[in-house]
C-alpha cells in the first residue's frame, strides 16, 4: 500500500487532522475498499479528530453500528474496553467494585451479547458465563471497537442485543512508522497507595522482497496495577416486610488488580490483491481481594431503632483470582478480477484460576440483648462495646476453596464473493461456511475446617488471629482477621480429613459444543440504495457431562446429556441516502443466544428434608433464546463535525430463560422443591436511541473550541415468568434483567492546540437485578439509578509530549440496590474518587 501523499496542511496540527478527517465525512459514500484505503491514512489528533474518524466508519457501514476508535477511547479517563464503551449510544456497563466489567447493549444483559476479536469469538474465563469481561482487555491494545446492532447473514450468531467486535491495531492503520508511550500513577481516596500504569505501542511498515511498504508489524503492551477499596453494607434481601430485618452485614474490601496486555500483529500485502495477516492477543487480569465482614444475625426480625438478641460473625474472605484471555487469528484475503475470497482460522482460550483460598473464616459471639441497627439506605450497627473487641469472638469454622475454569474456542471459516456489474446497479453475491468447537470445563474443591478442639487447636479467640482495626468509613467495625494467621492454621491440618466431597464434585462439569454454519447473501447497490438480504443456517451439537448426587442414599452417579438443534436466521438490511448528508436505515434480522453454562450445568442434587423430596439441578436440554429484530432510523451528518440520529428498535424474544420451581408437575409431581432453569414463552424489548454530536463554529472566539456530545436511549421490556402452587399455574410479568429504562451520556469538550478538557456524565436508570421471590414482586431486587461524572485534562507542552490528569467518579457516586422499595437496602457500596496523573509521548 502506498504511503500517504496528502499535501501538508497549513493549519494548526489539531485543525489539520480534523480537516482531513472531516473531508471524508462530507464526501459521498465510497465503495468499501476505497473507504478503507481512505480512512487508514487519516492521522487523528485530539477529541475532534477521534470523533470524526469514528463517525466516518459508522456512516459508511451497511448496517447499524456504533464505533469507538482507539483515539476516541483515549479521550476519556477509562481504564479498559468496557468502561470506554459505556460512552456510546445504547450501551451501558455492569460494574464490579465500581469498575466497568461487562457490556449491555440496548438494555440486554451481557450474556445476551457476543464479543469477537477480529472475527473470532472470545472465550469467557468465568465458569458459569458466556459473557466476556472486557475489563480484562486494556484499551491500548486495540485499533477500534465496533458494536453491530443489526446482524447480517455473514456474521456468526450468538447475540440478541449486539456483537462487540474488537479490532486489533495494524501498522497500516497509519501511514508512517508510529510509536506511543505513556506512564501514569493513580490514587484512590479509600486506599492511600499509588497505582502505576505503563503502556506502549509501536508499528513499522517495511519493504520486503522488492515490494514497497508490503510488511506491517505492530506491537502493543500494557501493564497496570490498581490498588483501591470499597465500603459496603448489605442485607442480601433478608427482609420480612411485616416484622423487619433478619440479617445484615458490614463489609470492607481491600483490592489490588493487575492487568497485563500484549498484542503482536503482522500484515503482509505483496500486492493490491493479496493480503496475509496474523493477529494475536494475550491479556491477564489478577484480582487480589481481602474482604473483612461483620455479619449480624438477629434472633427475631426487627426494624431500625429496635434492640434485641443476635449472633455476630466476624468473617474473612481472601483470594487471588487470575483470569487470562488469549487469541490467535491467521488468515488471507485474495482478489481475482470480480472474485474475492478469504480463509481464516482462529483459536481463543480463557481460564480463571483461584487457588487454595479463604472462602470464609468465621468467628462468632452471641449477645442476649442490645443489638440492632439504625438507618435504611446505609445501615449502621448498634451493639454493646464488646462487639467491637476481639476477645469475645471464637473461631467457628474455616471454609477453603480451590476453583478452576477453562474455555477453548476453535474455528475456521471460508468466504467467497463475486461482484456483478449491471445496468441497474452493482450486485455482489456472497457465500461462506464456518465450523467452530467450544469446550468448557469447571472444577472445584471445597474444604470445611471445624471442630478445632478435637483437632488439638486451643487458640480459638479472635484476639489470636487479629490484624488491627478495620478502616471502614461507614461506621465502626472493630478488629480485622489476619489472613496469614488463618493460612498458617489450616496448613497445620490434614486437608484430606476436612474435604467436602459433595461440593467438591457436584460443581465439576464439561460441556462441548460443535457448531456448523453456512450462509448465502446478496448485496445490491444503485444510486442512493443499498440492500442486503440472505439467510444463515447453524447446526449445534452439545454434550454435557457432570454428576448426580443422591443425598438420601449418599451415592454419586454420572450424568451425561446430549442434544442438537438447527436454526435458520434470515436478515434483510436496507439503506437509502436521502442526500449527501442524510441516511435512512431499516433492517429485519434474527439472532440467537445459547444458554449460559450455569444454566446448562448437568449437576443434580437430590435431598430429603422432613420426609419431603427436594432437588436442585441445571438443565442441559434448554433451548437457545431466539429473536426477531426490527430497526428503523435516520442519521444526519453536519457540514462540519457533527451528527444527529434517531433509531427505533424492537425485539421479540422466544424461549426466555428463568429460574423456576418445577415441584408439583411432570417428573417432580411428588417433590416439595425442584429448582432449575426453564424456557419461558415470549419476551419483548423495544426502544429509541437518540444521538447528537456537535462541534461549535462560527463564533470567532473560545466557543469554537467546544465539542458537545449527548445520547439517550429509552427502553422498555416485558417477559412472563410462571410457577405452580398446589397444582395451579400462576404467572406474572417482569422486565428483562439488567434493562434500564433510560441510559444517557453527556460530555462537554474544550480543545486548543495545547489544552484538551473533557467532562463526561454517564447515567443509567434503575433496573431489575434479580427476581428475589418468583411468586412475589415485592421481593424483586433493583439496582438504583446511577450517575457518574468523570473528568480528564491534557496539556501538550511540546510536540509529541502530553501531560494528562484524570478524575474518575468525580461525584463519589455509590452503588445502591434495594428489595422492592428504596428504603429496603439490598446492598450499598461506595468506592471513593480516583485521580490519575500521567505523561504520554507520541511521534505525531
TrEMBL record:
* InterPro entries given in the database record: Beta-barrel_TonB (IPR000531), Beta-barrel_TonB_sf (IPR036942), Plug_dom (IPR012910), Plug_dom_sf (IPR037066), TonB-dep_rcpt-like (IPR039426), TonB_rcpt_bac (IPR010104)
TonB-dependent receptor-like beta-barrel domain mapped to chain residues:
398-810
Where it sits in the cell: the answer is: Cell outer membrane
Top-level division of the source organism's lineage? Bacteria
Where is the secretion signal located? Answer: 1-31
Q: How does it sit in the membrane?
A: Multi-pass membrane protein
Chief location category: membrane
Q: Which key words are in the record?
A: Cell outer membrane, Membrane, Receptor, Signal, TonB box, Transmembrane, Transmembrane beta strand, Transport
Show where the TonB-dependent receptor plug domain sits: 58-163
Fetch the Pfam families from UniProt: Plug (PF07715), TonB_dep_Rec_b-barrel (PF00593)
Regions that span the bilayer = none
Would you identify the family this protein belongs to, as annotated?
Answer: Belongs to the TonB-dependent receptor family.
- List, alphabetically, the NCBIfam families matched: TonB-Xanth-Caul
Any idea what this protein is called? TonB-dependent receptor
